[in-house]
Design a protein that fits this description.
The chain has two domains: 103 residues, 60s Ribosomal Protein L30, Chain: A; 154 residues, SPOUT methyltransferase, trefoil knot domain (Alpha/beta knot), CATH 3.40.1280. It is 35% helix and 19% strand. It contains twelve helices and twelve strands. Helix 8 links the parallel strand 7 and strand 8. Helix 7 runs parallel beside helix 12. The radius of gyration is 20 Å and the shape is elongated.
Length: 269
Protein backbone atom coordinates (compact mmCIF):
# COMPACT_ATOMS: atom_id res chain seq x y z
CA UNK A 1 0.00 0.00 0.00
CA UNK A 2 1.17 3.58 -0.67
CA UNK A 3 2.65 5.29 2.36
CA UNK A 4 0.93 8.53 3.29
CA UNK A 5 3.20 11.39 4.34
CA UNK A 6 1.69 14.19 6.44
CA UNK A 7 4.89 15.72 7.84
CA UNK A 8 7.11 17.43 5.21
CA UNK A 9 10.10 16.78 7.49
CA UNK A 10 9.49 13.01 7.59
CA UNK A 11 12.93 11.41 7.28
CA UNK A 12 11.57 8.68 5.02
CA UNK A 13 11.28 11.22 2.19
CA UNK A 14 14.58 13.01 2.75
CA UNK A 15 15.57 12.38 -0.89
CA UNK A 16 13.03 15.05 -1.81
CA UNK A 17 13.98 17.73 0.73
CA UNK A 18 14.94 21.28 -0.31
CA UNK A 19 15.01 20.63 -4.04
CA UNK A 20 15.42 24.33 -4.85
CA UNK A 21 18.71 24.51 -2.92
CA UNK A 22 21.17 23.92 -5.75
CA UNK A 23 24.21 23.93 -3.49
CA UNK A 24 22.70 21.26 -1.26
CA UNK A 25 21.68 19.11 -4.19
CA UNK A 26 25.10 19.36 -5.79
CA UNK A 27 26.63 18.10 -2.55
CA UNK A 28 24.07 15.47 -1.60
CA UNK A 29 23.06 13.77 -4.84
CA UNK A 30 26.50 12.48 -5.90
CA UNK A 31 27.16 11.22 -2.36
CA UNK A 32 23.93 9.24 -2.32
CA UNK A 33 24.13 8.34 -5.97
CA UNK A 34 20.67 9.62 -6.80
CA UNK A 35 18.86 11.98 -9.12
CA UNK A 36 15.24 13.10 -9.35
CA UNK A 37 12.89 12.48 -12.25
CA UNK A 38 9.80 14.68 -12.55
CA UNK A 39 6.56 13.93 -14.47
CA UNK A 40 5.02 10.71 -15.67
CA UNK A 41 6.69 10.85 -19.09
CA UNK A 42 10.19 11.41 -17.72
CA UNK A 43 9.80 8.73 -15.05
CA UNK A 44 8.61 6.18 -17.60
CA UNK A 45 11.51 6.98 -19.91
CA UNK A 46 14.01 6.63 -17.07
CA UNK A 47 12.57 3.24 -16.17
CA UNK A 48 12.54 2.16 -19.82
CA UNK A 49 16.25 3.03 -19.99
CA UNK A 50 16.87 0.58 -17.17
CA UNK A 51 17.35 3.10 -14.35
CA UNK A 52 16.39 1.79 -10.92
CA UNK A 53 13.99 3.72 -8.66
CA UNK A 54 14.66 4.32 -4.96
CA UNK A 55 11.15 5.62 -4.26
CA UNK A 56 8.20 7.51 -5.74
CA UNK A 57 6.41 10.59 -4.41
CA UNK A 58 3.08 11.73 -5.81
CA UNK A 59 -0.27 13.31 -5.07
CA UNK A 60 -3.14 10.91 -4.37
CA UNK A 61 -4.81 11.40 -7.75
CA UNK A 62 -1.76 10.09 -9.60
CA UNK A 63 -2.04 6.66 -8.04
CA UNK A 64 -4.62 5.84 -10.72
CA UNK A 65 -2.69 7.21 -13.71
CA UNK A 66 0.50 5.48 -12.53
CA UNK A 67 -1.20 2.34 -11.26
CA UNK A 68 1.07 0.02 -13.26
CA UNK A 69 4.22 1.68 -11.91
CA UNK A 70 2.85 1.67 -8.38
CA UNK A 71 2.03 -2.03 -8.59
CA UNK A 72 5.47 -2.90 -9.97
CA UNK A 73 7.21 -0.71 -7.38
CA UNK A 74 5.37 -2.27 -4.47
CA UNK A 75 6.01 -5.80 -5.73
CA UNK A 76 9.70 -4.93 -5.92
CA UNK A 77 9.88 -3.40 -2.46
CA UNK A 78 10.23 0.20 -3.71
CA UNK A 79 8.28 2.60 -1.46
CA UNK A 80 5.53 4.76 -2.96
CA UNK A 81 4.82 7.89 -0.93
CA UNK A 82 1.67 9.99 -1.31
CA UNK A 83 0.99 13.41 0.16
CA UNK A 84 -1.20 16.45 -0.20
CA UNK A 85 0.05 19.17 -2.55
CA UNK A 86 0.80 21.54 0.33
CA UNK A 87 2.92 18.90 2.07
CA UNK A 88 4.86 18.15 -1.10
CA UNK A 89 5.47 21.84 -1.72
CA UNK A 90 6.69 22.36 1.85
CA UNK A 91 8.95 19.34 1.49
CA UNK A 92 10.47 20.11 -1.91
CA UNK A 93 10.31 23.89 -2.06
CA UNK A 94 8.28 24.03 -5.27
CA UNK A 95 4.79 23.29 -6.55
CA UNK A 96 4.67 19.85 -8.12
CA UNK A 97 2.35 20.42 -11.05
CA UNK A 98 3.50 17.47 -13.14
CA UNK A 99 2.05 14.87 -10.84
CA UNK A 100 4.92 12.76 -9.60
CA UNK A 101 8.56 12.58 -8.63
CA UNK A 102 10.87 9.61 -8.50
CA UNK A 103 14.16 9.31 -6.67
CA UNK A 104 16.38 7.25 -8.95
CA UNK A 105 19.71 5.51 -8.53
CA UNK A 106 22.34 7.16 -10.70
CA UNK A 107 23.68 4.74 -13.30
CA UNK A 108 27.49 4.49 -13.61
CA UNK A 109 28.91 6.73 -16.33
CA UNK A 110 30.95 5.19 -19.15
CA UNK A 111 34.51 6.32 -19.71
CA UNK A 112 35.10 8.65 -22.69
CA UNK A 113 36.98 5.81 -24.37
CA UNK A 114 33.97 3.51 -24.20
CA UNK A 115 31.59 6.25 -25.37
CA UNK A 116 33.77 7.08 -28.38
CA UNK A 117 34.43 3.57 -29.63
CA UNK A 118 31.57 3.39 -32.13
CA UNK A 119 30.73 7.09 -32.37
CA UNK A 120 31.11 9.42 -35.35
CA UNK A 121 29.28 12.55 -34.12
CA UNK A 122 30.01 13.83 -30.61
CA UNK A 123 29.00 17.01 -28.78
CA UNK A 124 31.18 18.61 -26.10
CA UNK A 125 29.62 21.08 -23.66
CA UNK A 126 32.15 23.37 -22.00
CA UNK A 127 31.08 24.85 -18.65
CA UNK A 128 27.42 25.40 -19.61
CA UNK A 129 25.85 26.20 -16.26
CA UNK A 130 22.21 26.71 -17.23
CA UNK A 131 20.38 23.42 -16.70
CA UNK A 132 17.66 24.31 -19.20
CA UNK A 133 20.27 24.82 -21.92
CA UNK A 134 21.90 21.49 -21.10
CA UNK A 135 18.52 19.79 -21.35
CA UNK A 136 17.69 21.52 -24.63
CA UNK A 137 21.05 20.51 -26.13
CA UNK A 138 20.50 16.89 -25.16
CA UNK A 139 17.05 16.93 -26.74
CA UNK A 140 18.54 18.27 -29.99
CA UNK A 141 21.32 15.69 -29.81
CA UNK A 142 18.80 12.86 -29.52
CA UNK A 143 16.66 14.21 -32.35
CA UNK A 144 19.53 14.76 -34.77
CA UNK A 145 21.49 11.56 -34.41
CA UNK A 146 24.38 12.46 -32.11
CA UNK A 147 26.19 9.40 -30.80
CA UNK A 148 27.38 10.85 -27.52
CA UNK A 149 27.80 13.95 -25.38
CA UNK A 150 30.85 14.85 -23.32
CA UNK A 151 30.56 17.46 -20.59
CA UNK A 152 33.41 19.30 -18.87
CA UNK A 153 33.92 19.13 -15.09
CA UNK A 154 32.20 22.48 -14.42
CA UNK A 155 29.24 21.86 -16.73
CA UNK A 156 25.75 21.60 -15.22
CA UNK A 157 24.52 18.13 -14.38
CA UNK A 158 22.40 16.54 -17.15
CA UNK A 159 20.52 14.61 -14.45
CA UNK A 160 19.50 17.74 -12.60
CA UNK A 161 15.70 17.78 -12.39
CA UNK A 162 15.22 20.78 -14.72
CA UNK A 163 17.72 19.48 -17.29
CA UNK A 164 15.98 16.10 -17.39
CA UNK A 165 12.57 17.74 -17.77
CA UNK A 166 13.63 20.11 -20.57
CA UNK A 167 15.34 17.24 -22.40
CA UNK A 168 12.00 15.37 -22.32
CA UNK A 169 13.92 12.32 -21.18
CA UNK A 170 16.49 12.52 -23.99
CA UNK A 171 19.19 12.36 -21.33
CA UNK A 172 18.26 8.68 -21.02
CA UNK A 173 18.71 8.05 -24.76
CA UNK A 174 21.96 9.83 -25.62
CA UNK A 175 25.11 8.32 -24.07
CA UNK A 176 26.99 10.95 -22.09
CA UNK A 177 29.83 11.25 -19.65
CA UNK A 178 32.29 13.76 -18.22
CA UNK A 179 35.59 14.56 -19.93
CA UNK A 180 38.34 15.25 -17.42
CA UNK A 181 40.86 16.86 -17.41
CA UNK A 182 39.75 19.72 -19.58
CA UNK A 183 40.86 20.63 -22.20
CA UNK A 184 43.64 18.06 -21.88
CA UNK A 185 41.05 15.33 -22.32
CA UNK A 186 40.65 16.32 -25.98
CA UNK A 187 43.56 14.01 -26.71
CA UNK A 188 41.30 10.99 -26.25
CA UNK A 189 39.19 12.22 -29.18
CA UNK A 190 42.22 12.51 -31.44
CA UNK A 191 43.30 9.04 -30.34
CA UNK A 192 39.97 7.84 -31.75
CA UNK A 193 40.37 9.72 -35.03
CA UNK A 194 38.08 12.66 -34.31
CA UNK A 195 38.41 16.14 -35.75
CA UNK A 196 37.61 18.67 -33.01
CA UNK A 197 35.67 21.76 -34.13
CA UNK A 198 35.28 24.74 -31.80
CA UNK A 199 32.28 26.99 -32.42
CA UNK A 200 33.55 30.51 -31.78
CA UNK A 201 34.19 33.88 -33.37
CA UNK A 202 37.76 34.63 -34.38
CA UNK A 203 40.28 35.15 -37.11
CA UNK A 204 40.82 32.12 -39.27
CA UNK A 205 37.42 30.62 -38.51
CA UNK A 206 35.62 28.80 -41.29
CA UNK A 207 31.90 28.88 -41.99
CA UNK A 208 29.60 26.10 -40.83
CA UNK A 209 28.55 25.84 -44.48
CA UNK A 210 32.12 25.01 -45.46
CA UNK A 211 32.47 22.37 -42.75
CA UNK A 212 29.12 20.82 -43.66
CA UNK A 213 30.07 20.67 -47.35
CA UNK A 214 32.92 18.24 -46.61
CA UNK A 215 32.60 16.98 -43.03
CA UNK A 216 35.17 14.63 -41.52
CA UNK A 217 34.11 11.05 -40.88
CA UNK A 218 34.43 11.48 -37.12
CA UNK A 219 33.61 14.91 -35.76
CA UNK A 220 33.40 16.38 -32.27
CA UNK A 221 32.25 19.94 -31.80
CA UNK A 222 32.47 22.17 -28.76
CA UNK A 223 30.15 24.92 -27.62
CA UNK A 224 30.88 27.16 -24.67
CA UNK A 225 29.21 29.04 -21.87
CA UNK A 226 26.15 31.23 -22.33
CA UNK A 227 27.98 34.50 -21.65
CA UNK A 228 31.65 34.21 -22.55
CA UNK A 229 31.55 31.43 -25.10
CA UNK A 230 34.44 29.01 -25.44
CA UNK A 231 37.55 29.40 -23.35
CA UNK A 232 40.79 30.34 -25.06
CA UNK A 233 42.30 26.99 -24.11
CA UNK A 234 39.43 25.10 -25.72
CA UNK A 235 39.79 27.09 -28.93
CA UNK A 236 43.54 26.53 -28.98
CA UNK A 237 43.00 22.82 -28.42
CA UNK A 238 40.61 22.44 -31.36
CA UNK A 239 41.60 21.44 -34.89
CA UNK A 240 39.31 23.99 -36.52
CA UNK A 241 37.26 27.03 -35.45
CA UNK A 242 33.78 27.31 -36.94
CA UNK A 243 31.23 30.14 -37.10
CA UNK A 244 27.53 30.05 -37.96
CA UNK A 245 26.73 32.58 -40.72
CA UNK A 246 24.32 35.24 -39.44
CA UNK A 247 22.88 38.53 -40.57
CA UNK A 248 21.38 41.76 -39.20
CA UNK A 249 24.40 42.46 -37.04
CA UNK A 250 23.80 39.44 -34.78
CA UNK A 251 27.03 37.73 -33.81
CA UNK A 252 25.81 34.77 -31.74
CA UNK A 253 22.87 32.57 -30.78
CA UNK A 254 21.70 31.05 -27.52
CA UNK A 255 23.82 27.97 -26.87
CA UNK A 256 20.91 25.56 -27.33
CA UNK A 257 19.84 27.25 -30.59
CA UNK A 258 23.42 27.29 -31.90
CA UNK A 259 23.82 23.63 -31.07
CA UNK A 260 20.58 22.70 -32.87
CA UNK A 261 21.67 24.60 -36.00
CA UNK A 262 25.08 22.94 -35.98
CA UNK A 263 23.68 19.48 -35.36
CA UNK A 264 21.20 19.84 -38.20
CA UNK A 265 23.85 21.07 -40.64
CA UNK A 266 26.25 18.28 -39.72
CA UNK A 267 23.73 15.49 -39.36
CA UNK A 268 24.46 12.24 -41.15
CA UNK A 269 22.22 11.65 -44.16
Amino acid sequence: MPIEITDPADDRVRDYFALTDVALRTKVEPERGLYLAESEKVIRRALAAGHRPRSFLMAQRWLTDLADLVEKAESGGVPVFVAQAAVIEAMTGFHLHRGALASMHRPPLPTPTVLLQNASRVVILEDIIDHSNVGAVLRSAAALGVDGVLITPRCADPLYRRAVRVSMGAVFKVPWTRIDPWPGGLQVLRDHGFTVAAFALGDGAISLDDLAADPPERLAFILGTEGEGLSRRAIQGADVVVTIPMSAGVDSLNVAAARAVALWALRRV
